[in-house]
Write a structure and sequence with these properties.
By secondary structure, the protein is an alpha+beta fold. Helix content is 45%, strand content 11%. β1 (25-28) and β2 (31-34) form a beta hairpin. The two termini are 21 Å apart.
């Protein structure tokens, strides 16, 4: 399936940000933390960001388990 350009799908930006955030960490007070969803809850951007993060999570899980996670 072909990915839609951003101008046709404005929420894709949030999905992409969530996907990228999965592999990022930030340092606060000398400790490392995974980047969290800072968008306002119960909004479309928040849900789309989370959808991107979840997609990255399951893609990573499939790589680690040798593509055995989904049946």
């Amino acid at each position: 399936m072909k990915k839609q350009p951003e101008k046709d799908n404005p929420t894709q930006r949030f999905v992409d940000e969530g996907y990228e955030a999965f592999s990022k960490v930030e340092q606060r007070k000398g400790k490392y933390h995974q980047v969290a969803n800072r968008l306002k809850e119960n909004t479309t951007p928040h849900r789309e960001w989370q959808r991107g993060w979840n997609t990255a999570y399951f893609d990573n899980l499939e790589k680690l388990n040798g593509h055995r996670t989904r049946s």
